[in-house]
Amino acid sequence: xxxxxxxxxxxGFAISGAIQAFTSRSAMLSNLGDHKPKTIVKASVLxxxxxxxxxxxxxxxxxxxxxxxxxxxxxxxMFASTNLVFELGLVLWxxxxxxxxxxxxxxxxxxxxxxxxxxPRFDFTLASATxxxxxxxxxxxxxxxxxxxxxxxxxxxxxxxxxxFVVAGLADTLIPASFWHHLFLSGHxxxxxxxxxxxxxxxxxxxxxxxxxxxPLSAALWNSGISFGGTIAFIFADLLTIPLALIYRKFxxxxxxxRLVLVFWGVMSISGxxxxxxxxxxxxxxxxxxxxxxxxHGSHFGNNVTTWLNGLAVAVGMIVIWLYVTRxxxxxxxxxxxxICGMQVEKNIAAATLVLDGQTLYFCAPSCKESFMxxxxx
Length: 378
Hints:
Blueprint: H1 2-22, H2 25-32, H3 37-49, H4 54-66, H5 71-83, H6 86-96, H7 98-118, H8 143-156, H9 158-174, H10 177-183, H11 189-206, H12 215-224, H13 228-236, H14 242-252, H15 254-281, H16 305-325, E1 335-337, E2 344-346, E3 352-356, E4 359-363, H17 366-375
Antiparallel strand pairs: 1-2, 3-4
């Protein structure tokens, strides 16, 4: 699974770094600074174009918010960039049939509509950035700055990434498909459909699989008895996993993350169930497919598209590392590295600062400053 998603991870975080470095706050506000219908549509289209895996999408969404995008609109962008994408539809079509590929887009638009209606009604107020007193010489952003953001974001979520892939590998290898068959109700009409749609995201939450990587498992679940709506809800729940919840907590804090998880869960379940009803109405619920996890593993090293994309990603990664190593590290640089999480912070809008022994330290969030202060000797 890591082999399948490596290139998407690196490209996604590289795009996030470029957005943070080259996009001005005023420009972002003028494009995604509200959650009006026109802006939601724009974010959906931009998200679909900016195809990303779940981790990279969460990083890009966070960078959009930091640049002044509306919270609801940034979340819509994140959902679109993992669910309204060509490669996911193509894999779904190949493994499960055109109905699932079509359901991806039908359910995706339902999710985006629900998010646009629900999120503004919750309090998702984030801690505002404070302006540092440090005066810096203005200069144009560079690719060195973009590399700093890319490496910083990857450093910040490195442990969550490792946890996610380890859990995914264990789930794929050790849990038999028959377990899922006994877990989901079947033949119980509306009650069974609702139960399946509710449990789909729960299974994704505890058995993490990322973006396109969750399609093989969803195919095995579908063949083992889960409903059409439950399968769709499971596929959508690549943004609702334990590692990603930990990332959201780092990005937005525990209070906002709790509300986000509940909203995501409800929206994914409702969208999966409604999508099933739409396809039942038109008589296009597909038949079960043969095979399971053992016959649906991802790509392997060789002369194939994934290998070439990973090779290109390695080349891009080497360039990013070179740009990062050769970036401006002087006190006059407009950027600093958060000493706790490793994230690159723009000094003039750092969320928190601390003067220690005559040196100013910059933090991406107040929680990082608190952690640093706790680590200081008494």
